[in-house]
Write a structure and sequence with these properties.
It is a single chain. The chain has 405 residues and is of the alpha/beta class. It has 13 helices and 19 strands. The protein has helices at 36-40, 42-45, 62-69, 73-82, 95-109, 129-142, 185-197, 206-213, 281-294, 299-302, 315-328, 351-362, 380-383; strands spanning 7-12, 30-31, 34-35, 50-57, 86-90, 116-121, 144-150, 156-158, 165-168, 175-177, 181-184, 218-221, 241-256, 260-262, 265-267, 271-273, 332-341, 369-374, 387-399. The strands form five sheets. Strands 1, 4, 5, 6, 7, 10, 11 and 12 form an eight-stranded mixed beta sheet that branches. It has a five-stranded mixed beta sheet with strand order 16-13-19-17-18. α7 crosses α8 and α9 (281-294) runs parallel beside α11. The relative contact order is 0.12.
């Protein structure tokens, strides 16, 4: 059941990132089409019920924070579509102070306070919509919730020297806590006020404040990929890519009175492909391979033969239109390999020109495209010169996305 609660989002980004050792705030590091910060906020912008956003920042870095947030065109578009108030609040000396500042700013700036508040580390860019929804539902029911994963390592306690083990945690009952942490807004604000009045600065996160002043915090299901970037090695997870292959196949009759089109190049010959468009069998197979790899459609769905719009259409333009859909979904081409089955004419003299033509259509380097030709040794319709066929395979890649579990 989807949560119907309204919620505000606090993104904590006021830390110094000293442990990264890069001399640059980790939230500003490049990721996907923007930065860690612009990536971390995306899944929240796609979640129903969001009413306010507030981002904490270190003193003197407000403009850098805004630049990092709006570095992604997708994030900028999502923010524009949502039309949600966006606030920036200067952080304090500790995370606890930064969150308290943000809660007070929300309380002062909200005409109608949200039911819940989610507090998320801006350095956790891999949070998914599913994890967010889990937190909203659990916090809506119990008042406080935190996503978690079971501890997989043995956890030990040490003495003050940190060299001698004094005890072990009970692993079956030990969990690793993540963010976003979700709470009833009014109660969390009051708990922070009490902590400030008590000069209680020992709370490491908001679950400890809630537990000290409100009551128990409930666990909900997290995600192992929802890691926090702390050290420079952590960002290497972004190098993990989603890889897909695609296979395209097409066959056309060869008839007189038509141009023989291969890869956008007119090959001198007495026959050409018979087809609704210009019949470029090579480009048709490539189009299907790319669309199939991205899981978007096939060429017949996008450009149906029953539609006279595509009568005698330039197959190069069809390929480019399909390729734009693949690019818009975040994919890039790693390589394309094709086999043309054609008895005559000899293909080799035109191969370089065909490869360059395909690369130009796809906007990639020529070395990512290869085309080979085979005859059928006189066998079958291809061997008799009655048809031409093409098999095309491609490899495409993109970074893992937030909505992947």
């Amino acid at each position: 059941m989807k949560s119907k609660s309204t919620f505000a989002l606090i993104l904590t980004a006021a830390g110094s990132s000293v442990r990264m050792g890069l001399g640059l705030k980790k939230e500003f590091l490049p990721m996907q089409d923007g930065t860690v910060l612009s990536t971390a906020i995306k899944s929240f912008l796609k979640t129903n019920g969001l009413t306010h956003i507030i981002i904490t920042y270190p003193d003197g870095q407000l403009e850098d924070m805004k630049k990092a947030l709006f570095s992604s065109s997708e994030t900028e578009q999502l923010l524009s579509q949502c039309g949600i108030p966006l606030l920036f609040e200067k952080g304090g000396a500790t995370r606890q102070e930064s969150v308290f500042n943000a809660l007070n700013a929300l309380a002062a700036g909200c005409a109608q306070k949200p039911e819940l508040v989610l507090i998320h580390d801006a350095a956790r860019p891999w949070v998914t919509e599913t994890v967010i929804q889990n937190v909203l539902e659990c916090a809506g029911e119990y008042g406080a919730a935190v996503p978690s994963t079971p501890a997989t390592d043995t956890l030990a306690f040490t003495d003050e020297s940190k060299e001698i083990i004094t005890g072990y945690a009970d692993r079956p009952h030990t969990f690793c806590l993540q963010t976003p942490q979700g709470f009833r807004f009014n109660e969390l604000l009051e708990a922070h006020r009490k902590a400030a009045a008590d000069k209680n600065t020992s709370c490491t996160d908001d679950t400890t404040i809630w537990a000290a002043y409100c009551g128990p915090v409930h666990l909900c299901e997290g995600n192992a990929r929802n890691k926090k970037i702390t050290f420079k090695e952590d960002i290497q997870t972004e190098a993990a890519m989603q890889i897909r292959t695609g296979l395209g196949y097409d066959l056309h009759k060869l008839v007189e009175g038509r141009k023989l089109m291969l890869g956008g190049v007119a090959i001198p010959f007495e026959k050409g492909e018979d087809g609704h468009s210009d019949g470029d069998v090579l480009l048709h197979a490539i189009t299907d391979a790319l669309l199939g790899a991205a899981g978007i459609a096939d060429i017949g769905e996008l450009f149906p033969p029953s539609d006279n719009t595509w009568k005698d259409a330039d197959s190069g333009k069809l390929l480019q239109a399909a390729w734009q859909k693949v690019l818009a979904d975040g994919w890039k081409l790693e390589n394309l390999d094709c086999v043309v089955a054609l008895e005559k004419p000899k293909f080799l003299p035109y191969r370089t020109q065909v490869r360059e033509s395909i690369a130009a259509l796809l906007g990639c380097d020529t070395d990512k495209v290869f085309v080979k030709a085979k005859t059928s040794e006189g066998l079958g319709e291809i061997g008799r010169g009655e048809a031409a066929a093409v098999w095309a395979t491609c490899l495409i890649s993109r970074p893992f996305r937030n909505n992947q579990e």
